[in-house]
Specification:
homotetramer, 379 residues, Aminopeptidase, OB fold (Dihydrolipoamide Acetyltransferase, E2P), 5-stranded antiparallel beta sheet, 31% strand, globular
C-alpha cells in the first residue's frame, strides 16, 4: 500500500506561524475514493482515534480504491483553550460555527449545471460522474481564486473551502464529529438512508437533501443538483456518492480502546463501497427524521440534575431533568421549594445533553430523538 | 410629559438572578411612535449616552407622539467580560450574533398577509396601518407562546423577539450600534433612503429591502411584505414607517460630550416625523450601496500598522495597512524584509477597522465605502 | 428550628444589576457555629447539592449550635459561560484565582496579636476564643472600610473578605469545592489532621499550618497566630476550630443522589462537634503530605488518552497517559509512530485529571497522591 | 555587524505544532550586552515596532558590545484571540499573569551566594561579575533540568525561565510592555534610579529593590543578592547592571511612526552604556514611588465616561470619571439621577485607564501617579 502525505497552509497567525492541514492518502488497486476528516469542531477528538486505528488496519489489508485522512482538520480550533476546555465550536473572533461555513458551490459559483447536464446526458453515469468531479475541481479553484483576488477570503472560508475541495473527488465523505455529552449517532441525508445503515450506528438522524451550511450537505449538494438537472433531460440516476456526519460520543475525549470498536463502522462501509472484501452487514437501529430530532431548550436558569444519560430511552411524562434555583430556597422545605422539573412531552431517546449543570435560561439542555422509526428488529 | 417605566424579564441566570429590560416611554400629545434601543451588541455603548441626552432634552420640549427608550437592551452581553474588554457581539455559549437572530415574522408565523391585504385594501392607509400593527401584536404573542410551549425558545430568541415585538407598534425604529473602531455611519434600506438623510450622518450605507436577520430589517420587513401584498390588489402605498441602524462611532466608548452632538441626528428625524416642531434639514453625505460596502479581509497574519483612520478617504493605490511578520525578519534589512502592504484597489472611505494590531489571516481588517454616491454638495 | 436569611450585595455589574450572596442560618440550642459555603470556584457545583440535603435533614433533627449556609458563594463566576462550560476558576478580567485572594488578616491588618495574647492569657480558652472572635469582627470591618475609603477595594477582595468575615465567627469552616475530573478528597491542615478523619474522606491531603491565599487557610491562620502568641506567654492551647476544603468530585456536575451520600461526611463532623447527637466514626483513609501531592505537568502537547481514572491506584512504571501527536504520523505504523507515554515514577493514586484530551505542553495532566500514609486499616 | 539568529522551542500545542522564540543577536566590538524583549503580555505590541527600528538603525551604526532582541516573546499569548481583542495578559488555562511567573533564582535554586561572595570577594568587580554570570548560567540550566525530570515544568515556567536565563548574561535588560490605554512610562528599581533618567521617559515609577514575580525584578534580584552578600565581607559594590520595564503606550496598537520616536529612549541608554558613541542626555521627568503609584478601583458598576486621558494632570477634587447606572434612571432628570462621580482625592497624573467604558464594580479604573517628584526642571 502506498501512502502519500500532503500539507496545505490554512492560516497564518498574527505571530507569523502557519497552521497546516496534513492529509494522508493511501492507494490500493483502482476503486472508489473515500474522504475522512475529523475535528472540524475543535473539541471533538474521538474521530482522530478512529483514523489512527483505520490507518493502522489498512497496512495489513488488501484494499481497492483510496482513502484520504485528515486528522485534526481545524488546528486553530483544537488549540483554542479558555480554561482547560476547548473553545472549538465556533470561531472565537467572529462567532461562526465551523461546520456552517461551507458553501453550496453549484449555487454560489454560478456554474451552469443545466448546460452541463444537457451536454453530458447521453454518457454513462460513470462517465458523467468523472466529468462532473473534474468540473467541480475547476469550479472550486476559480471560486477560491476570485475570493483571494478581491480580498474576500474571510477567516473561515479558507479552511472550509479547502476541505470541501479536497472532498469533491470522493465517492464517500465521512465527517467525524462528536456531540457535547453524547451517545454515538449518525446524520444521513434521505437519498442515502439505505446506505446509512451499513455504518452500523444505533441512532440515525435523517436529514433532507438540502443545504444548511454543513460539510456533509456541502458534499452531497452538487450531486443532488446534478441529479435534478439530469432529470430534466429524462436521465434518471441514483446517486452512489454518500456524505455522512458521524458522531462518535462526547467532546473533549480521546480513547483508543473505544476507537477500536468505533472503527468497525467505517470498515463495514468500506466493504459496502467495495474497498474491502467481505459482505457488509447492518445492525438494528432507530431512525428519526430531522424535524423529530428535537432540541429541548432550558425553560429556566438554574443548577441542573440530569436524569437520563445519552442513549437512554424515556417515556412521555418522565422527568428529564430537575432545575434548582439556589436563590429561592425556603429553608423549611429546601429541596422542593427551589426545584422545578422538565418533563418529557412524548417518548424518545436522549442523544446528547449539555455538558454543564450550570445552565442559563434558553441554553440547549438535550437533543432527543422522538417519533422513532425502527430499522431491523430493534424495539 | 408623562413617563411610563416597564420591566421585562429576559434571562434567568444559572444562579437564579433574572436580567430585565427596562423601557422608558414618554408620551406627548397624539402622534407617531418611535422606538429607540441601544447596546444589543454588548460593547456598543455610545447609544446609551445619546438616549440619556435625548430623554433629558424631551423634558423641556413640547412633543407630539411618543418614544420608547431601551438603553442596555442586552445586559447579558454588556456584562460579559473576558479580560477588560466586552465579549458582546455574539452569544458566548452559541456563537450567534446578537443582531442576526431576529425573524421575518410574517414568513415565520405563516400569517396570511395576502388575505389581510385583500380584506383591508379598501381602507385608508392610516386605517390599514393601525389594523396591521394590531395584527402584528397578536402574531408575535402567539409565535412566542408556541415556542415556549414546545420548549423551542432558545437562548437568543427570547430577547430578540421581545425587542421586535415592542418595536412592532412603532412608526420609526432606531437601533443604536457602533462599529469596532469606527466613524459614524448609518444603515438605511432603499425604500427609505430619502428619509435617511434627515438623520444627518455623513456616511450612509444603503441596503436592499430584504431580510438578513438584523433588527432594522426585521422591523421594516412586515411593511415591505404588506406593501407587496397590497400591490397585488392594486393598492399602491408608500411606506411611512422607517427602521434604521445608527452607528455612533467606536465600541467600548461612552462619552456624554460627543453624545450631545450625536443627539442632533435623532432630534432632526423627530422634526421630520412631526414629533418636534421645526423644519428638518439635511447635510451633505456619502452614500454607498451595500454591495459596494466592502469588507477587506486580512490576506496575511501579522502585526498591523493601520495607515487610515475611520472617516478618512483614500485613493486607489494607497497603502491601507502594513503587515509585519516578526518571524521572518532579515536583520540586515529588518523593516523591509518582514513588511507587506495592503493596497487600495479602488477609491474609498475607511468606515471602520479592526481594533487590534494583532491580526490573524482572514480577520476583518477594514470595512470601506467604495463607489461613493454624493448626496448634496459633498465632494 | 429557626432560620434566618440574609443578603449581602457583592458586585454591581456594568448594567446596574447587583449580585448578592444569600446566607441561610439555622439556630438550634446553644452550641458551636459552623460555616459552610459552596462554589467559590464557579464551576464547582456539587457542594450546593450537599447543602440542600443538609438543610433538608436539619429540619427533622434536634441540633445544638448553628450553621450558616452560603450556596453559590460566587454568582459572578458561576454565571460566566464561555461556550457551554463555566469559566469560573479565576476572574476573567484579572486572572486571579478566586480561592487565592483571601488575606492573612492578622498580618495584613497590623492587629497586635502579641498585645492581645498578653492581655488575655489568664482567661480560660473559652473566654479567649470569644474575645478573639469579637476582635476579628472589628478588625475585618475596619480593614474593609479602609479599602473602600481609599478606593483600593478591588474586583476580588470584596467577595473574599466578606466570606472570610462571615466565617470568622465559626468554630468549623467547610469550604465545598470539586476538582476538574476528580475523586472525592479533603484538604486538612496538620494541626487538625486527627479531626479530619471524622469527615470520612478516603483521600486526605495534609497541608502545613501556613497561609497560601485559600479560604481554609485564611480561616485557620488567625488561630494559628493566636496559639503561637499565647505560647510566648506560656499559655499552651489546642485549637478547637477547624477549617477544611472538601472536594466533592468533578466540576460542572450537580447530582442530588450522590449528594445524599456526600452529606454523611458533614453529618459525622457535626456529631464530632456536638451539634448532633451520636458517636462520630471514621473510615479507613489514605493521607498524603502536601509535598507528596504532586501535579504532573504535561511534558508534551497532543491528544491524550488517560489510562487511570480518579480514585484508581497505580504502580511505579505504569503508563498513566498516552500522548498522540497527529502531526507526526508515519502512516506505515501510525499508532506507535505518533504515540509517547507518561509513566509513573512511583506508586500513587490519581486524585484528579485534566477534563480535556486536548492538551498543550505544560498543562496539568494529573494530581496524584504519592507516599501514601494509611489511616486505619486501609491498604 | 554580525547577526546571529537562534530559535528556542517553547510550547508544543495540542495539535503538534511547536511555538518558538526567535532571538536576533547583533555583535559589535567587545562591550556590554543588552537584552531586549517585547510582548510577554500578548496584546502589548508596540515594543516590536521599537525593536524593528532599532535593528534597522544598528545596521548603519558603529556599535560596541552586543544586543539580543526577542520580538513577540510570547507567541501563544499574542495569538490568543477572544473576539477581536487579544486575551494576552494571563494564561487562559491557568489565569497566571505572564509577567508574574519569573523566579528569584538565587532563592529558589538554593545557590549558596554567601559562599560565592566569600570565595570571590577579593577579585575586582569586573571579574566577580563575569564569574557570577557564568554561575547563573549553570544554576538556570540545572534548575530547569530538575523541573523537567520531575515533570514539574508547568505551562508558564518554561517560557519565563528561558527568558530569564537568556537575560542572565546581560548588563542591561529592557522588557518592553504597554499599559491598557496608557501614556508612556517606565518602571525602575531604586538602585538604578539615576540611570533610569537616561531612558528619557516623562513618567517614572520607582519600585523597591525587591522581588514580586516580574521580569525586571527577576533580572536584577541576583545582583541585589550578590551586592548584599559581598557587603557582609566588606566589599561594597555599585551594581552596574540595570533591568527596566518600559511601557510604550497602549495595548493592541502597533505604529511604526511612533516607534521611530520611542526608539530614542533606548538609543540614549545605549550611549550611557557605551554601546554607541555620544553623550547621553536626560529629559525632565516626573518620578513617583511605587506606594504612590495608585490603582483606583471602580467603586461602582456602570457605564463610565473618562474625563482625563493618560498623561494628563489633575488636581484634588477634579472629577476623574462619571458612572452612569442605566437601570436607575429617573426620566424626569435622567442624566443627574443615574450619574455618580469619582473624584480625585489628591493631585496626580493619569498614567493609564481601563480600555472599556463598561465597568463592573472593583475593576481597575485608573492607575495614577501621586506625590510627584520632579526630576530636572519639570513642573
Amino acid at each position: 500500500m502506498k501512502w502519500i502525505i500532503n500539507e496545505y497552509p490554512i492560516k497564518e497567525l498574527a505571530t507569523g506561524e502557519v497552521l497546516n492541514l496534513k492529509t494522508y492518502t493511501v492507494h490500493g488497486s483502482p476503486g472508489p475514493h473515500i474522504h475522512i476528516q475529523a475535528s472540524v469542531h475543535g473539541a471533538e477528538l474521538q474521530g482522530n482515534a478512529v483514523i489512527l486505528h483505520l490507518m493502522d488496519l489498512l497496512n495489513s489489508q488488501k484494499m481497492k480504491g483510496s482513502i484520504t485522512f485528515i486528522p485534526l482538520a481545524n488546528p486553530y480550533a483544537t488549540n483554542n483553550k479558555i480554561g482547560t476546555y476547548t473553545y472549538g465550536r465556533f470561531n472565537p473572533v467572529t462567532g461562526h460555527n465551523w461546520n456552517r461555513n461551507y458553501v453550496d458551490i453549484i449555487k454560489e459559483s454560478n456554474f451552469n449545471i443545466d448546460e452541463f447536464a444537457k451536454e453530458n446526458k447521453d454518457y454513462s453515469w460513470g462517465e458523467i460522474r468523472s466529468k462532473f468531479k473534474a468540473k467541480l475541481e475547476i469550479v472550486f479553484e476559480k471560486y477560491v481564486e476570485d475570493l483571494i483576488q478581491s480580498k474576500k477570503l474571510a477567516e473561515n472560508n479558507k479552511l472550509n473551502l479547502l476541505l470541501q475541495q479536497l472532498a469533491s473527488k470522493a465517492d464517500g465523505i465521512l465527517d467525524l464529529h462528536t456531540g457535547p455529552v453524547a451517545t454515538r449517532y449518525l446524520y444521513s441525508a434521505e437519498y442515502q438512508e439505505q446506505v446509512a445503515y451499513y455504518l452500523k450506528f444505533r441512532h440515525v438522524v435523517v436529514i433532507p437533501n438540502e443545504f444548511g451550511g454543513a460539510m456533509d450537505e456541502a458534499c452531497f449538494m452538487p450531486w443532488i443538483h446534478l441529479r435534478d438537472a439530469l432529470k430534466k433531460y429524462k436521465k434518471n440516476i441514483s446517486i452512489d456518492i454518500e456524505s455522512f456526519t458521524l458522531e462518535f460520543g462526547s467532546e473533549e475525549t480521546f480513547c483508543m480502546q473505544n476507537a477500536s470498536k468505533d472503527v468497525e463502522s467505517i470498515l463495514n462501509y468500506m466493504k459496502y463501497k467495495g474497498l474491502l472484501e467481505g459482505t457488509p452487514d447492518q445492525i438494528d437501529s432507530h431512525a428519526c427524521r430531522l424535524k423529530n430530532f428535537r432540541t429541548i431548550y432550558s425553560p429556566k436558569g438554574g443548577l441542573v440534575d440530569y436524569h437520563f444519560e445519552p442513549g437512554q430511552r424515556y417515556l412521555k411524562g418522565d422527568t428529564l431533568a430537575s432545575f434548582y434555583n439556589l436563590k429561592s430556597i425556603d429553608p423549611k422545605d429546601p429541596i422542593v421549594s427551589c426545584r422545578s422539573k422538565v418533563m418529557a412531552e412524548e417518548d424518545g431517546i436522549v442523544i446528547n445533553r449539555c455538558p454543564s449543570s450550570s445552565v442559563h435560561q434558553g441554553m440547549e439542555l438535550f437533543q432527543v430523538m422522538t417519533k422513532l422509526e425502527e430499522h431491523g428488529a430493534i424495539k
